[in-house]
Amino acid sequence: MNQSRREIFIVQLMLGISLILGFFPPLIMFLLYKKNPFYRESSRKALNFHLTIFPFFFISYFLPSWYTKIIYVVLVVELIFIVSAMIRIARNQSHTYFISIPYIRK
After folding, report:
1. Which tens digits make up the pLDDT trace of 9-28?
2. Helices marked H in the chain
3. Domain limits of the chain?
4. What angle do CA 106, 20, 42 make, to 5 degrees?
5. Which of 8, 13, 44, 92 has its CA 20 to 30 A from that of 19?
6. Is the pTM of this model over 0.70?
7. Both ends of the chain: CA-CA distance in Å?
């Protein structure tokens, strides 16, 4: 299904902002754009991904300081998956997050 440039840009913007703000941008898009299936599906996938990654950040606050370097690995993985999704969206290809628990189903 071909998406308009505006729809692609908005989803990419949401994903870019989610690198900084976590699951809030996908959550807001998921709740606000219920009638647009492209926005709904893209935000659902991103939200599931961020909710899967979030426990790693939460747990890191309780680990010893020398062990928290794992968070940098999690950040790099998150960056790779989100940039990959942004590129696939720009090419009008389907995208998935391989490390994602489907908390929110279709």
Report:
1. 999 999 999 999 989 999 99
2. 5-21, 24-32, 37-60, 70-90
3. 5-90
4. 20
5. 92
6. yes
7. 17
